[in-house]
C-alpha cells in the first residue's frame, strides 16, 4: 500500500486528473453586460498538504514544497478545478478531508494563498476529546475548532494532522472526524410589506413587540432614523471590524425586519417594527465572511441573546446539508428552539442550487418572488443535493425591495435603497415569524416554521422545488387557528425496492381554537403516477387545543422512472383558512454489486485508481474509488458505463521497480451483479525512443472517453518514482469516442553511471543536491552501510562514490561530506525510484532503486568496483514529445521519431536577472481544453536545442520564469501558441531587451462588452518574440489609465484597467500604460509609456479593441547590446483575432541617446511587413531610447516610448 500521507514519499503514488467536459454546469441568472472578469495575475496557493499550486491564464502547475514535480489528480467539473496531491488521496476518499480544500478555482477567487483557514470537526468520544492536537476558536455546536494554517507552516501542520500513519487512522487517533475549509460565505442580494399582509396583522395590535430577532449580516447603521432604538445588542465576529455597516446589506435586511419607517414618515416600516434586534456582524465590509465567524454568531445569537428568530441572508454553494454551517443550524435549532430563516441563494434558475446553510433540515429556507408572485429568475431551486429533499419551503418578496440605506455604504444615496435577492426575501419571513412568535410566545421554532409554511398563499404556477408551499402570507397565518406540518418528505428509494413497507411520514395538524375542528383532506399530485401517494384518512378531527395526525405513504411498486415526485395535501375545515402540506418522494436506480479484481503483470494483487463513467447521468459525471489489495466491491446503479483503472504495476528495473498501467472496459453494461477482471499482463509498454540519449524528466498520460451525455478527460501526471508506462491494447471503440495521449519531456541525462554492461538508468538526482562538474570520471565505489559517521570509520571514501542504504538523509549527507565523498548514492528501501528532497547541500547525491542498488552493494562486497560517472549539469538539449492514439490503442506502443519528424527550436536564454530559469512547454493536445503540468527547473546555459513533436492537431505554449537569489520570480514571460512543422528550425529568445507592453492570444486581450471596457496590458514582453511579460521584477511599477477624449475615466496601479457605464455611441478613447523599474537591477527598458488611441461604441458581445502593437528586431549580444551600426526593424500589427482596422498607413521613429532629453528623427525603409532604420549613434552613447508612432487607415494609433530599449557596444 502506498504511503498516502508521508511528506517524504518513499513509496510512489499513482495520481490522476479528471476533467469533465460535457456535463452542463448549473445555470445562473443572466446579468446586464458588465466588465468581464479578466484573468488574474498568476496566483500561488499552498494546499493543506504543503504542496504548491500556481494558477495562471488557464494553466495549472503543481509542485511539492521543495519545488520539485509531484503527482497530482486534477478534476474539473461544473466550472471548478480541484487539485488533489497524491498525499491527499486517501484522506479525500475516506472523507477525512473536505474536497473544497483542493478547489483551486474557489481558493483563488476568494483570495486564499499561503495561509489557510480550517474547521476541524472532532468525534464525540471522551478519548478523542483528550487527544485534540489543534487549538483555536471553539465551535461547540458542531464539536469543532476553527484554526488557521499559518504562512510557512504547511509542512508542520500536515505532519500534525496526519502523524506517521499511512492512512486516515492517524487523524482518527487524534479524534478528528473531518477537516473542512473554513469557507467564505457571501451576502445573497413597491410595497412588499403589504404584499405579505403585515399591515393587517399590525391593525390587530401585533407588531412583534418584545420578540428577539437576530440578524447575522454585515452589521448595521444604528444611526439610521428607521433603526434608532431598535437594536437591543450587537457584536462583531469579524476580526478588526466594528459592527458599523459599511456595506449596506445588513442595514437593508435589518430594516426590512424591524424598521420603524421614521425617515419616510412611517411609510417604509419593516414587517415587525416592535421586535428587538440583535445584530451580529459575521460578514465583513466586502460582504463576505468565513464559516467559523458565522457559526460563532449563530451560537451568540441563540445561546447568549436568546433570539427566537435568526435571520441569515447569506449562503455558499449548493450542498446536501452535511456541511458545518447546515449542521450548526440543525444543532442549535434542536438545542435552543430558535427558528433560522435563511436565504435559498441566488444561483437559479437551475435545479439543485440551494446553498448552505439553507440546505439544513431545520432551516426555513426562503426563495424570492416579485410583486406578482412570479418566481425571481435568480432564486435558487431545489431539490436538495443528493437526497432530493424539499427546499425551499416558502417564498417572499425579493425583487425591487425598498429598505433603509446605510449612510456608510457607497451604493445609492438618501435614506432608502432598492435591492433584489433572496437576501431581501428572507427578512420578510423573519419579520413574519416575529409577529407569529409574539402571538404564540410558547411556540418553538419548528412550530413557527410549520405554521408559516402551511398557511402560505398558494402559487399554483410554481412547483414545490421552485416556490415551496407558496408565498408568505402572514395575514392568513394570523387568521388561522389550524396549522399543519409544512412539508413531508418520504426520502429517496431505489427503483424496484420491495421492503414490504412503503415509505411513510406522519403529517401533524394543530388546532389552537377552543373547539374541535374536522378537516377534509385532499391530495393533489398531478405529475405523479396514479396511486403513488396515499393518505391513511381523508377526514380527521383535531381536538380543541390539541393535535391529530395522518399518515402519507408512497407506493413505489411499478414506478420505473428515476426522478422526484411531489404533491400537496390540502386540509379544509369550517371557520378556518385551508392549510397545505407539500409532500415528496424521490427514486434512484437500484444498486448492483460491481466486483473488480485487479492483477499485476505477474499475477499479484494490484492497487490503483478506478474510474467509472455513467453514459447518461449528468448529475454524476464519474465515480472514483481507490482499489486496495487487488479487489473492490461497490454498489452502483443499473446502466451503461465506461470503466478504466490506473494501476501500479511492476516496472522495468526489477522486482522493486514500479510502473503505471492503463486498463479499461470501454463499454460495460451493469444490469445485475457484475464481475470485472483487469489483468495488467495484457498491457504493453509505452516508450519514446529519441535520436539522442535522453531520460524522462516528466511524463503524463491523458485518457479521453465520451459516450452518450458523458465526456471525461483523465490526465495522469506521473511522479518520478515510476519508471515505465503501460496500456492495454484495444480494438476500435465505436460507442462514443476514446483516445490516449502521452506526453514526455525527455532531457539530456544530468548524471550517467555505468559499470561494465550495467547502466544504472534508474537513478534520480535528488532535489537539493549539487551536480558534479561537467565531464567523465572513473571512480571507485565503496559501501558505507547506513551512511552514519561511524560507518565511515576506517573506510577510505574520499574522492569516491559512497553507496548507502537510505535512512536519516540529513545525517547521511553530512557524514558523506565529512568523509570527502565525491558522489553519494542512496539505495531505496521501498518500491520505485528513490526521490526524497534534501536540504541544499554542496554534495552530489543521487538515488538508486532497491533492486539495482542492492545488486551494486553485493558486487562491492565481493570485490572492488569502479564506476564510470558522466555529468552534464547544464542541459544542452531536450525533447518535448506527444503521441496520440485515437479510438483504439495498438499493440506496438513505441514512438521512434527521427529528427526530421520533429521541429527544432534553438532557445536563447538571456539572464538579465537571477541565475535560475524555470521553464515549461505546455501542449494543447486534442480533447484537452486546458494545459497543466509541473514546472520543472531545467538548468541550462544560454543556448539549448529543443526537439518538439510537430503535428497539425497539436499546438504548444511556453512559459519561462527567472528567479532571483531570493527565489522570487523577477521576470515571467509567456509565448503565443505555436503550430510546429516537421523539419522546421526556429529560434526563440527569452528575456531579451526592448521590453514593453506586448500582447498575444495566450493571455486575455483588451476588449469591450456592451458599455464596459477592460484592458489587461502586461508591460514586459521582449523585442519581437511574441511574448507576454507578466512581471518586471519586484523593483518594477506599472499603471494603466483610460481616457474618453481628454477626460480621465480611471487610473489603476498594475496592468489591468476596467470601466463600466460607458456611453453607447462611438467616441474616441485613449489607453495609456506606463512602466518603470530600477536601472541597477534591470539595465534596459527602465521606463516606458505606451498610448493607444481608438474609437469604440457599445457592442452586442465581447469584441477586442482595435489596438496596434509594435515588434522590434535588432541583433544583440548576451548582454543586450547591439553593434553601433546594427539596423533596427519595426513590425506593426493589430491584436490577433480583433476587428479589421485596416492596414498601417504611417509609421515614424525617433531615437535618443540621452534617455529622451533630445530626439533624432530616423529615416525608415519599408521591406515587406517591416520598416527598417539604420541609426548612427554618436561616440560615447551607451543606450538606445526609442519613440515610435503608428496609425492605421481607420485612425487607430499608437505612440510608444522605451527609455534605454537596448545597449550599444
From TrEMBL:
GO terms for biological process: proteolysis. One of its GO terms (molecular function) is serine-type endopeptidase activity. InterPro entries: PA_dom_sf, Peptidase_S8/S53_dom, Peptidase_S8/S53_dom_sf, Peptidase_S8_Asp-AS, Peptidase_S8_His-AS, Peptidase_S8_Ser-AS, Peptidase_S8_subtilisin-like, Peptidase_S8_subtilisin-rel. Residues 494-514 are annotated as: Disordered. Residues 208-459 form the Peptidase S8/S53 domain. Residues 1-29 form the signal peptide. Keywords: Hydrolase, Protease, Serine protease, Signal. The active site is at residues 217, 249, 423. Transmembrane segments: none annotated. Belongs to the peptidase S8 family. This is Peptidase. It comes from Sphaerisporangium melleum.
Amino acid at each position: 500500500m502506498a504511503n498516502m500521507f508521508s511528506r517524504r514519499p518513499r513509496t510512489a503514488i499513482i495520481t490522476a486528473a479528471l476533467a469533465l467536459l460535457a456535463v452542463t454546469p448549473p445555470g445562473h441568472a443572466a446579468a446586464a453586460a458588465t466588465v468581464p472578469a479578466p484573468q488574474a495575475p498568476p496566483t500561488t496557493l499552498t494546499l493543506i498538504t504543503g504542496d504548491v499550486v500556481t494558477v495562471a491564464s488557464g494553466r495549472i502547475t503543481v509542485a511539492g514544497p521543495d519545488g520539485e514535480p509531484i503527482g497530482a489528480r486534477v478534476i474539473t467539473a461544473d466550472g471548478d478545478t480541484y487539485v488533489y496531491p497524491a498525499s491527499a488521496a486517501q484522506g479525500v476518499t475516506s472523507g477525512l478531508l473536505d474536497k473544497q480544500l483542493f478547489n483551486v478555482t474557489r481558493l483563488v477567487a476568494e483570495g486564499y494563498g499561503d495561509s489557510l483557514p480550517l474547521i476541524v470537526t472532532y468525534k464525540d468520544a471522551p478519548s478523542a476529546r483528550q487527544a485534540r492536537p489543534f487549538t483555536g476558536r471553539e465551535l461547540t455546536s458542531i464539536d469543532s475548532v476553527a484554526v488557521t494554517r499559518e504562512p510557512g507552516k504547511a509542512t508542520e501542520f500536515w505532519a500534525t494532522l496526519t502523524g506517521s500513519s499511512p492512512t486516515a487512522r492517524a487523524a482518527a487517533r487524534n479524534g478528528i472526524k473531518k477537516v473542512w475549509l473554513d469557507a467564505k460565505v457571501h451576502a445573497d442580494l413597491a410595497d412588499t410589506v403589504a404584499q405579505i399582509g403585515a399591515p393587517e396583522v399590525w391593525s390587530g395590535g401585533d407588531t412583534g413587540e418584545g420578540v428577539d430577532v437576530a440578524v447575522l449580516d454585515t452589521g448595521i447603521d444604528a444611526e439610521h432614523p428607521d433603526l434608532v432604538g431598535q437594536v437591543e445588542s450587537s457584536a462583531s465576529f469579524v476580526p478588526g471590524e466594528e459592527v458599523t455597516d459599511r456595506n449596506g446589506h445588513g442595514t437593508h435586511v435589518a430594516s426590512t425586519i424591524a424598521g420603524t419607517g421614521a425617515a419616510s414618515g412611517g411609510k417604509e416600516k419593516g414587517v415587525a417594527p416592535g421586535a428587538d434586534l440583535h445584530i451580529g456582524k459575521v460578514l465583513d465590509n466586502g460582504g463576505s465572511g468565513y464559516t467559523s465567524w458565522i457559526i460563532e454568531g449563530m451560537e451568540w445569537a441563540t445561546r447568549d441573546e436568546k433570539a427566537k428568530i435568526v435571520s441569515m441572508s447569506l449562503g455558499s454553494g449548493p450542498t446536501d446539508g452535511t456541511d458545518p454551517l447546515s449542521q450548526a443550524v440543525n444543532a442549535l435549532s434542536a438545542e435552543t428552539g430558535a427558528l433560522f430563516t435563511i436565504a435559498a441563494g441566488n444561483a437559479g434558475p437551475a435545479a439543485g442550487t440551494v446553498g448552505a446553510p439553507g440546505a439544513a433540515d431545520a432551516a426555513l429556507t426562503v426563495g424570492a418572488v416579485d410583486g406578482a408572485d412570479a418566481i425571481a429568475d435568480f432564486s435558487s431551486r431545489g431539490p436538495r443535493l443528493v437526497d432530493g429533499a424539499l427546499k425551499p419551503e416558502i417564498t417572499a418578496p425579493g425583487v425591487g425591495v425598498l429598505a433603509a440605506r446605510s449612510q456608510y455604504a457607497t451604493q445609492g444615496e438618501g435614506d432608502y435603497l432598492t435591492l433584489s435577492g433572496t437576501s431581501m426575501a428572507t427578512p420578510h419571513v423573519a419579520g413574519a415569524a416575529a409577529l407569529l412568535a409574539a402571538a404564540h410566545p410558547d411556540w418553538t421554532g419548528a412550530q413557527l416554521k410549520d405554521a408559516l409554511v402551511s398557511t402560505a398563499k398558494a402559487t399554483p404556477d410554481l412547483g414545490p422545488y421552485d416556490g415551496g408551499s407558496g408565498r408568505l402570507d402572514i395575514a392568513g397565518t394570523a387568521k388561522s387557528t389550524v396549522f399543519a406540518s409544512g412539508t413531508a418528505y418520504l426520502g429517496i428509494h431505489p427503483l424496484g425496492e420491495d421492503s414490504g413497507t412503503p415509505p411513510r411520514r406522519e403529517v401533524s395538524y394543530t388546532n389552537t381554537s377552543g373547539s374541535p375542528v374536522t378537516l377534509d383532506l385532499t391530495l393533489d399530485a398531478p405529475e405523479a403516477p396514479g396511486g403513488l401517494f396515499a393518505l391513511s384518512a381523508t377526514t380527521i378531527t383535531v381536538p380543541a387545543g390539541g393535535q391529530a395526525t395522518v399518515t402519507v405513504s408512497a407506493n413505489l411498486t411499478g414506478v420505473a422512472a428515476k426522478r422526484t415526485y411531489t404533491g400537496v395535501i390540502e386540509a379544509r375545515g369550517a371557520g378556518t383558512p385551508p392549510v397545505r402540506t407539500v409532500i415528496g418522494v424521490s427514486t434512484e436506480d437500484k444498486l448492483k454489486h460491481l466486483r473488480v479484481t485487479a492483477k499485476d503483470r505477474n499475477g499479484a494483487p494490484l492497487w490503483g485508481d478506478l474510474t467509472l463513467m455513467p453514459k447518461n447521468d449528468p448529475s454524476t459525471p464519474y465515480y472514483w474509488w481507490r482499489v486496495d489489495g487487488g479487489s473492490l466491491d461497490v454498489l452502483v446503479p443499473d446502466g451503461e458505463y465506461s470503466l478504466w483503472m490506473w494501476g501500479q504495476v511492476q516496472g522495468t528495473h526489477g522486482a522493486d521497480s514500479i510502473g503505471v498501467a492503463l486498463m479499461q472496459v470501454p463499454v460495460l453494461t451493469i444490469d445485475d451483479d457484475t464481475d470485472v477482471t483487469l489483468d495488467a499482463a495484457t498491457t504493453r509498454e509505452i516508450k519514446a525512443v529519441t535520436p539522442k540519449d535522453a531520460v524522462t524528466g516528466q511524463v503524463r498520460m491523458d485518457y479521453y472517453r465520451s459516450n452518450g451525455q458523458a465526456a471525461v478527460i483523465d490526465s495522469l501526471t506521473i511522479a518520478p518514482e515510476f519508471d515505465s508506462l503501460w496500456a492495454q491494447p484495444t480494438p476500435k471503440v465505436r460507442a462514443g469516442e476514446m483516445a490516449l495521449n502521452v506526453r514526455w519531456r525527455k532531457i539530456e541525462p544530468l548524471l550517467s553511471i555505468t559499470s561494465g554492461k550495467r547502466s544504472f538508468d534508474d537513478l534520480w538526482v535528488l532535489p537539493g543536491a549539487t551536480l558534479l562538474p561537467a565531464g567523465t570520471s572513473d571512480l571507485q565505489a565503496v559501501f558505507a552501510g547506513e551512511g552514519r559517521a561511524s560507518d565511515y570509520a576506517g573506510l577510505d571514501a574520499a574522492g569516491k562514490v559512497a553507496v548507502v542504504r537510505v535512512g536519516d538523509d540529513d545525517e547521511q549527507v553530512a557524514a558523506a561530506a565529512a568523509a570527502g565523498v565525491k558522489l553519494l548514492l542512496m539505495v531505496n528501501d521501498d518500491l520505485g525510484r528513490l526521490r526524497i528532497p534534501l536540504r541544499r547541500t554542496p554534495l552530489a547525491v543521487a538515488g538508486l532503486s532497491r533492486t539495482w542498488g542492492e545488486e551494486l552493494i553485493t558486487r562491492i562486497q565481493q570485490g572492488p568496483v569502479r564506476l564510470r560517472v558522466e555529468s552534464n549539469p547544464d542541459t544542452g538539449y531536450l525533447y518535448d514529445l506527444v503521441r496520440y492514439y485515437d479510438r483504439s490503442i495498438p499493440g506496438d506502443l513505441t514512438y521512434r521519431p527521427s529528427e526530421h519528424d520533429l521541429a527544432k527550436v534553438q532557445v536563447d536564454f538571456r539572464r538579465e536577472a537571477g541565475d535560475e530559469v524555470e521553464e515549461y512547454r505546455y501542449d494543447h493536445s486534442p480533447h484537452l481544453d486546458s494545459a497543466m503540468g509541473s514546472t520543472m527547473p531545467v538548468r541550462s546555459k544560454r543556448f539549448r536545442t529543443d526537439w518538439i513533436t510537430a503535428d497539425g492537431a497539436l499546438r504548444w505554449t511556453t512559459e519561462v520564469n527567472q528567479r532571483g537569489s531570493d527565489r522570487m520570480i523577477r521576470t515571467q514571460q509567456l509565448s503565443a501558441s505555436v503550430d510546429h512543422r516537421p523539419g522546421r528550425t526556429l529560434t526563440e529568445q527569452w528575456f531579451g531587451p526592448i521590453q514593453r507592453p506586448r500582447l498575444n492570444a495566450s493571455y486575455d486581450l483588451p476588449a469591450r462588452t456592451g458599455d464596459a471596457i477592460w484592458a489587461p496590458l502586461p508591460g514586459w514582453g521582449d523585442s519581437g518574440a511574441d511574448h507576454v511579460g507578466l512581471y518586471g521584477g519586484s523593483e518594477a511599477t506599472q499603471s494603466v489609465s483610460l481616457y474618453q477624449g481628454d477626460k480621465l475615466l480611471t487610473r489603476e496601479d498594475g496592468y489591468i484597467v476596467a470601466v463600466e457605464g460607458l456611453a453607447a455611441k462611438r467616441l474616441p478613447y485613449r489607453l495609456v500604460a506606463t512602466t518603470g523599474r530600477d536601472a541597477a537591477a534591470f539595465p534596459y527598458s527602465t521606463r516606458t509609456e505606451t498610448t493607444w488611441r481608438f474609437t469604440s461604441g457599445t457592442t452586442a458581445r465581447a469584441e477586442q479593441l482595435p489596438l496596434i502593437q509594435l515588434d522590434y528586431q535588432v541583433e544583440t549580444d548576451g548582454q543586450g547590446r547591439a553593434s553601433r551600426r546594427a539596423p533596427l526593424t519595426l513590425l506593426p500589427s493589430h491584436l490577433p483575432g480583433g476587428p479589421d482596422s485596416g492596414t498601417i498607413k504611417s509609421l515614424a521613429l525617433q531615437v535618443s541617446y540621452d534617455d529622451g532629453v533630445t530626439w533624432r528623427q530616423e529615416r525608415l525603409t519599408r521591406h515587406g511587413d517591416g520598416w527598417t532604420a539604420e541609426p548612427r549613434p554618436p561616440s560615447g552613447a551607451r543606450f538606445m531610447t526609442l519613440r515610435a508612432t503608428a496609425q492605421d487607415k481607420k485612425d487607430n494609433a499608437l505612440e510608444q516610448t522605451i527609455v534605454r530599449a537596448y545597449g550599444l557596444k
